[in-house]
């Protein structure tokens, strides 16, 4: 089992480049199955989730080639409509097979997805959408089968602006007859990216990025070239790495408008952030002010940056409050941060975080962003931190140890 070892307490300096976004690349790769012929996708990050998704595409009969962040997907020989259970349960985004294959072929079977264990994560809103479009839903335990002779556009109101449900319904509706309206849709940048790719392939999706998405169905989509947006959560994580180590770092390849809620909070803490067209320069000088954060759907504070920000809040003056409203169980990092000396008290969906002296310890990544928060805490801590179960971190961070080593961190991956 691989572990990450960090010797903390060093300042960082220099530049870190941001990779393509995991949560945009995964639905876009699945949507490539909807296009006839070949798509070429650029800036696809090398991640465990991407590799797993490529295995799913191959198992369905698609041809793929993945090299240097360029992924070719050819759907000419696609001949299966069932996602192997072993692959489906490895990741959350496997459920995008539902929208993509139902949309193009009118049939799909998959198993309930895996992904981070951060709450219940039901798929009722996805299924509500597919049903409204005319799909028959057959469930056998964890296995879901969808079938439709034809899909017909409809008005679908989401009780919660779910990212996954918005994307899945958008994909299926792209090839339905007539118009579909998704009301109370999620507005995350990754949804806009998926809509842009679908439109490049010939879809007619309007309003992505607002809470009303209108989709006029088309008969076919054609594979095309497309470049994935930069990862706003990876960018946020490295911005916090500068803040937590009291350093100056340039984070390159960032769409600043995607991380405004994080930058606003960091500025309130007293961190200087200079923006330019390519990225941001972060200049941190302790002491930092305590700020409260509350996670919300986009453009609110991203739940995927909550754990990392909590690690930083152990290093500010006084006490800060972190409220998690998106997932019911997303404080897995707290017990691990406490092993490193963090003073955090959880009550319900809120955590009170106090200024703490972090000391290196042996800890476990309980999920992807919890793992990232331990890396950040390890960079700031006195002495050595060993992180176990780093496969979670590898689901979402391309080349994390090299990127941090290049800016002066003492971090390495070891086999044991
Ligand atoms: C692969 C991917 O892109 N993952 C992201 C996606 O996850 P995911 O798409 O799973 O997140 P959702 O936006 O769907 O979930 C938000 C909330 O809605 C609930 N819900 C969702 C669907 C449903 O049918 N019923 C229901 O009740 C969930 O349990 C959760 O409490 O968006 C989350 C919220 O920004 C991010 O943390 C994840 O990193
Ligand atoms: C929760 C996350 O991922 P997933 O939805 O793939 O589990 C994440 O990216 O933080």
From TrEMBL:
<keyword id="KW-0132">Cell division</keyword>
<dbReference type="GO" id="GO:0051301">
    <property type="term" value="P:cell division"/>
</dbReference>
<comment type="pathway">
    <text>Cell wall biogenesis; peptidoglycan biosynthesis.</text>
</comment>
<feature type="binding site">
    <location>
        <position position="304"/>
    </location>
    <ligand>
        <name>UDP-N-acetyl-alpha-D-glucosamine</name>
    </ligand>
</feature>
<feature type="binding site">
    <location>
        <position position="92"/>
    </location>
    <ligand>
        <name>UDP-N-acetyl-alpha-D-glucosamine</name>
    </ligand>
</feature>
<feature type="binding site">
    <location>
        <position position="326"/>
    </location>
    <ligand>
        <name>UDP-N-acetyl-alpha-D-glucosamine</name>
    </ligand>
</feature>
<dbReference type="GO" id="GO:0071555">
    <property type="term" value="P:cell wall organization"/>
</dbReference>
<feature type="active site" description="Proton donor">
    <location>
        <position position="116"/>
    </location>
</feature>
<dbReference type="InterPro" id="IPR013792">
    <property type="entry name" value="RNA3'P_cycl/enolpyr_Trfase_a/b"/>
</dbReference>
<keyword id="KW-0133">Cell shape</keyword>
<protein>
    <recommendedName>
        <fullName>UDP-N-acetylglucosamine 1-carboxyvinyltransferase</fullName>
        <ecNumber>2.5.1.7</ecNumber>
    </recommendedName>
</protein>
<keyword id="KW-0808">Transferase</keyword>
<keyword id="KW-0131">Cell cycle</keyword>
<keyword id="KW-0573">Peptidoglycan synthesis</keyword>
<dbReference type="InterPro" id="IPR001986">
    <property type="entry name" value="Enolpyruvate_Tfrase_dom"/>
</dbReference>
<feature type="binding site">
    <location>
        <begin position="121"/>
        <end position="125"/>
    </location>
    <ligand>
        <name>UDP-N-acetyl-alpha-D-glucosamine</name>
    </ligand>
</feature>
<feature type="binding site">
    <location>
        <begin position="22"/>
        <end position="23"/>
    </location>
    <ligand>
        <name>phosphoenolpyruvate</name>
    </ligand>
</feature>
<keyword id="KW-0961">Cell wall biogenesis/degradation</keyword>
<feature type="domain" description="Enolpyruvate transferase">
    <location>
        <begin position="7"/>
        <end position="404"/>
    </location>
</feature>
<dbReference type="InterPro" id="IPR005750">
    <property type="entry name" value="UDP_GlcNAc_COvinyl_MurA"/>
</dbReference>
<comment type="similarity">
    <text>Belongs to the EPSP synthase family. MurA subfamily.</text>
</comment>
<keyword id="KW-0670">Pyruvate</keyword>
<dbReference type="GO" id="GO:0009252">
    <property type="term" value="P:peptidoglycan biosynthetic process"/>
</dbReference>
<feature type="modified residue" description="2-(S-cysteinyl)pyruvic acid O-phosphothioketal">
    <location>
        <position position="116"/>
    </location>
</feature>
<dbReference type="GO" id="GO:0008760">
    <property type="term" value="F:UDP-N-acetylglucosamine 1-carboxyvinyltransferase activity"/>
</dbReference>
<dbReference type="GO" id="GO:0019277">
    <property type="term" value="P:UDP-N-acetylgalactosamine biosynthetic process"/>
</dbReference>
<dbReference type="InterPro" id="IPR050068">
    <property type="entry name" value="MurA_subfamily"/>
</dbReference>
<comment type="function">
    <text>Cell wall formation. Adds enolpyruvyl to UDP-N-acetylglucosamine.</text>
</comment>
<dbReference type="InterPro" id="IPR036968">
    <property type="entry name" value="Enolpyruvate_Tfrase_sf"/>
</dbReference>
<keyword id="KW-0963">Cytoplasm</keyword>
<dbReference type="GO" id="GO:0005737">
    <property type="term" value="C:cytoplasm"/>
</dbReference>
<dbReference type="GO" id="GO:0008360">
    <property type="term" value="P:regulation of cell shape"/>
</dbReference>
<dbReference type="Pfam" id="PF00275">
    <property type="entry name" value="EPSP_synthase"/>
</dbReference>
């Amino acid at each position: 089992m691989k572990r990450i070892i960090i010797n903390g307490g060093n300042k960082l300096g220099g530049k870190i480049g941001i990779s393509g976004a995991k949560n945009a690349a995964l639905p876009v790769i699945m949507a490539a199955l909807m296009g006839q012929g070949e798509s070429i996708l650029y800036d696809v990050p090398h991640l465990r989730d991407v590799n797993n998704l490529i295995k799913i595409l191959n198992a369905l009969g698609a041809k793929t080639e993945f090299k240097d962040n360029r992924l070719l997907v050819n759907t000419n020989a696609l001949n299966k409509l069932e996602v192997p259970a072993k692959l489906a349960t490895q990741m959350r985004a496997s459920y995008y097979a539902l929208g993509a294959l139902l949309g193009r072929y009118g049939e799909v079977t998959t198993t309930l997805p895996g992904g981070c264990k951060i709450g219940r994560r039901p798929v009722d809103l996805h299924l509500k959408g597919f049903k409204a479009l005319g799909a028959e839903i057959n469930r056998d335990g964890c296995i879901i089968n969808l079938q439709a002779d034809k899909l017909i556009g409809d008005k679908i109101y989401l009780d919660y602006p779910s990212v996954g449900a918005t994307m899945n319904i958008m994909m299926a509706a792209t090839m339905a007859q007539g118009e579909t309206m998704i009301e109370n849709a999620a507005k995350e940048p990754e949804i806009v990216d998926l809509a842009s790719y679908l439109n490049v392939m010939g879809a007619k999706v309007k309003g992505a990025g607002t809470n009303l998405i209108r989709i006029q169905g088309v008969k076919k989509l054609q594979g095309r070239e497309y470049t994935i947006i930069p990862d706003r959560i990876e960018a946020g994580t490295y911005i916090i790495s500068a803040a937590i180590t009291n350093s100056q770092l340039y984070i390159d390849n960032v769409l600043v408008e995607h991380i405004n809620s994080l930058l606003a909070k960091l500025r309130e803490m007293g961190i200087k952030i200079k923006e330019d067209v390519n990225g941001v320069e972060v200049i941190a000088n302790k002491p930092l002010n305590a700020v409260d954060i509350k996670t919300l759907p986009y453009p609110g504070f991203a739940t995927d940056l909550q754990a990392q920000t909590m690690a930083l809040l152990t290093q500010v003056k006084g006490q800060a409050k972190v409220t998690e409203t998106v997932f019911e169980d997303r404080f897995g990092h707290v017990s691990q941060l406490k092993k490193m000396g963090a003073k955090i008290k959880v009550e319900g969906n809120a955590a009170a975080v106090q200024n703490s002296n972090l000391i290196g310890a042996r800890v476990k990544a309980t999920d992807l962003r919890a793992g990232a928060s331990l890396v950040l805490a390890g960079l700031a801590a006195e002495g050595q931190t060993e992180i176990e179960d780093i496969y979670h971190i590898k689901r979402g961070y391309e080349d994390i140890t090299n990127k941090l080593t290049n800016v002066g961190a003492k971090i390495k991956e070891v086999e044991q």
